[in-house]
Amino acid sequence: MRSWIVAIALSLGATPALAQTTPAPAPLPEGAIAIAADQSGQTIEAAVGGSIAIQLRSQPSIGSNWFLASKPDFLADPTQVSAPTVVSTGAPIVGGQRWQAFVFGVTEAGSGEVILERRDRTRAVLETFTVSIVAQ
After folding, report:
1. 82 close to 45: Cβ distance less than 8 angstroms
2. What is the pTM (predicted TM-score) of this model?
3. How many C-beta atoms surround the C-beta of residue 52 within 10 A?
4. Which of 16, 78, 90, 109 places its Cα 20 to 30 Å from the Cα of 97?
């Protein structure tokens, strides 16, 4: 009995670690510049006619999702791509985190900030992601 409890505790404790090392899914447009969570606060250069894709983790099972707060006019309205995070077996993590990707087309030259907010079920802001885009 004790070994079962230890095994269950270890497997439950390992799941978040696996989720943290899982690479983002790749259903992005060819040539899109992928921007990750650790790039918040940075400046990204993009080409007119290209696209950028901001890939962030959310946890919709507990009501945590990312929302667009603001974007510069030279970026098209985003399309969203979502996919579950998976473990090395390729199976989704039930009730776990999901990837949210916001894909913006770069329509003209300019510079400005994209701001995304992670909100809970009450719409309270839990976290903010900001990236400056310079399009040429």
Report:
1. no
2. 0.74
3. 25
4. 78
